[in-house]
Design a protein that fits this description.
By secondary structure, the protein is mainly alpha-helical. It contains 4 helices and 2 strands. Strands 1-2 form a two-stranded parallel sheet. β1, α3 and β2 form a beta-alpha-beta unit.
Length: 81
């Protein structure tokens, strides 16, 4: 329930929409240590983008998806470094 109740940043949906106008967008999120994390995060995504939304990847290894042609945006300053 905790994951599902998280409020998005005020600018998050506008950023997502603006990026989709440029190219494909995938949401990467860490599955976390809790077995309920993926369930809550999936419900969160479906509530905002619809039940058919599938542009997401649950992974703790986001760096493996970094390429010269990719832009990774993260809400954790340590991950940005």
């Amino acid at each position: 329930v905790w994951w599902y109740m998280l409020k998005p940043y005020a600018w998050a949906m506008n950023l997502h929409q603006s990026l989709k106008e440029i190219d494909d967008v995938m949401i990467l999120t860490n599955p976390s240590w809790s077995p309920d994390a993926c369930k809550g995060k999936l419900r969160w995504l479906q509530d905002r983008f619809g039940v058919q939304f599938e542009d997401y990847i649950f992974t703790s290894k986001k760096h493996l998806l970094a390429t010269p042609d990719s832009l990774l945006i993260d809400d954790s300053p340590s991950n940005c470094q």
